[in-house]
Amino acid sequence: MSYQLLFICLGNICRSPSAENIMNHLIAQRQLSEQITCDSAGTASYHVGSPPDRRMAFAASQRGITLKGQARQFRPSDFESFDLILAMDKENYANIVALDPEGRYRHKVRLMCEFCRHHPDQEVPDPYYGGEEGFNDVIDLLLDACEGLLDNLVQTQVAR
Ligand code: 4NP
């Protein structure tokens, strides 16, 4: 069984699909596709069925990453299905843990920026209502966090 990661944001069209596809890119580079798998979801349902935002996809493409996927909403059964659930910001984190009032899965939910090694940010900012720079910054921040996360998993979870 592979180790299963779920990336969470609000709409599942900007930040979490970027995290999913960046992580898949790094996993493929290290030939770990059999060991670690990725998915993403939104806390909100506004964009269910939509592809990633084209401004986000453009920023990712400039770093050689293609954004694939279709938005879906987080569902409580995801708590069982995934090993680690990574929230992009504190609001996403609060919305997810609120769906687990007894705290049974609290140990599986983390903030993405905990894994950054070069950026001091505590959250991946929502780029949706901002300009192009915000989308580029999201990619830079996620590359840092995804590399830190992957190194952490290789050390703690993945038998090689
Ligand atoms: P995401 O960005 O949570 O990174 O996918 C957003 C997408 C849509 C909206 C807000 C943020 N929205 O308000 O529709």
Characterization of the model:
The longest helix has 25 residues, at 132-156. α1 (15-29) packs across α5 and α2 (54-61) packs across α5. Helices cover 38% and strands 13% of the residues. The mean pLDDT is 97. The protein has a 4-stranded parallel beta sheet with strand order 2-1-3-4. The protein is an alpha/beta fold. α4 (90-97) links the parallel β3 and β4 (109-111). Residues 9-15, 46-47, 126, 128 line the site of 4-nitrophenyl phosphate.
Characterize the overall form: globular
- Helix/strand/pairing category: alpha/beta
Which ligands, by name, code or SMILES, are bound?
4-nitrophenyl phosphate
H-E order:
EHEHHEHEH
Arrangement of strands in the largest sheet: 2-1-3-4
Distance between the termini: 14 Å
Oligomeric form: single chain
For the biggest sheet, the summary is: 4 strands, parallel
Give the overall average pLDDT: 97
- Helix-residue proportion: 25-40%
What percentage of the residues does DSSP assign to strands (E)?
Answer: 5-15%
The radius of gyration is 14 Å
Low-confidence stretches: none
- Please report the total strand number as a whole number: 4
The DSSP helix count reads 5
